[in-house]
Amino acid sequence: MLKKQIYDALELNENSGRLAVVLNILIIVLIIASVASVIIESITNFATIEIFLVIELFSVIVFTIEYILRLWSCTEDKNFSRPVIGRIKYALSPLAIIDLLAILPFYLPYLVNVDLRVLRLLRLLRLFRLFKLTRYTRSFNLLKRVLIREKEALIITFFILLLVVIISSSLMYFAEKDVQPDAFVSIPHSMWWAVASLTTVGYGDIYPISPIGKLMASVIAILGIGFVALPTGILSSGYIEELKNDRCQSGDDIGDLERLVKLKKDGHITDDEFEILKKNIMDEIN
Known about the structure:
- The protein has two domains: 2-136, Voltage-gated potassium channels. Chain C (Four Helix Bundle (Hemerythrin (Met), subunit A), Up-down Bundle); 151-285, Orthogonal Bundle (Helix Hairpins), CATH 1.10.287.
- Helices cover 74% and strands 0% of the residues.
- It has helices at residues 2-11, 18-40, 50-73, 85-91, 94-111, 116-124, 138-149, 151-176, 187-198, 211-265, 271-285.
- The longest helix has 55 residues, at 211-265.
- The mean pLDDT is 79.
- GO terms for molecular function: voltage-gated potassium channel activity.
- It holds the Pfam family Ion_trans.
């Protein structure tokens, strides 16, 4: 019974009470506060303020307890119902990995010896706490659905972009290596120029000076406008389709609920049947 209550409180479903809503809001506030402290303490004048240490310790304690409780209560979910295998499966899920990465940087220096550079990297990993918000926001869930829906098109697009980068950097290397041997040292070095040009950023630290190099750079820059826009177009169309599906689904579910209320009012179904059918509709919405 206790495990079920904890699961409902953490997952915030239709069985959750008001206390669960308050708990989840507090966790969201703590996530934002902990990420903000990581950002602010990087400023030299604020690096030694003790409030950031207090926020960090409190965040780690709360997030550790949350992770342990989620790992313990996850067997209430039918997808993770087996006591051992289910918990291992849950621990390897994306959201559980994010939860672990949110607290791991605090504990690792006490478990293994790390040098200062690795320690700084681990401290930077605390920013992964921001991804914990994916559990609480509809927009992140929408983004996840769009990425899953359009994954094949995105993979093909990025593969094409990779080919364009390789071809562009190779052509520019052979065009400029004799004129600028220090700038275009090799094809991998030239890839930096290709990426900057294809994304139309053009930092200007490396640029062609030969006539053939300038000609190729012009063509590559024009092509880059179209190629870089491809992932944006795919994601935009995916968002529009998902929003349309949400609206259609929402309209259908509201209509079903209205018809269900009318059936109950007319006496065609009992109160128990009404509650069961309403729960089924709410499960589909969630």
